[in-house]
# Entry
Amino acid sequence: MSRRKIIAGNWKMNKTPSEAVELINTLKPLVASDAADVVFCVPAIDIIPAVEAVKGTKIAIGAENMYFEEKGAYTGEISPSMLTDAGVSYVILGHSERRQYFKETDEDVNAKVRKAFEHKLTPIICVGESLKQREQGVTIDFIRQQVKIAFSGIESENAAAAVIAYEPIWAIGTGKVATTDQAQEVCHAIRACISELYDESTAEKIRIQYGGSVSASSAAELFSQPDIDGGLVGGASLKTDFGSIVNY
Ligand code: PEP
# Structure
């Protein structure tokens, strides 16, 4: 079966609300595509103006994080219904920067994935190994563990609708893109893991992105691999290059 490509920008902690609107207005004509789903994952404070700025286009707005409780005394956190009410449809969960700097665990990620589905948000679940793990030869074992815990208690219907982003930590923001073979090998292993957890049909439906220094010059080869269904793009999503990546 052919899966629809999904190309998402992860803006990280960049762009004020007014800068966000300016960037969206610049990118809007460049990312118009009938061939792929296009998502801008923006800082929480940019969500409302971003949703407004993409009205009338097919661009979806995503969040970069979310808490797993409904409401209450969690100062500084954003709830799933705050996101849906604001017009968000995707949420990045378990990005390696959140795992590293904010100590998010696999169990936290799983709680967030469960909540996202309860609220009909599509999670973009990030997994990826460190350079040390790659050198130790434990990449696939480590990623299988991340995937298994992230999907614990998730029904197959929801799993099929999820997006997984394979992002080797050593490739994020370093300019050091994984080779096409490395990226395909791990994305294939992730699909096999989903097939073991659920069944082949779920594995055939789930979309798996590659992320890590994707650029206009590397996108076409990466995204044409059989198990790579698009990309999660950091640095290049803040530039007009994102248009070339979407239209690879
Ligand atoms: C990311 O942070 O998700 C990412 C892939 O960043 P970059 O493209 O800058 O490596």
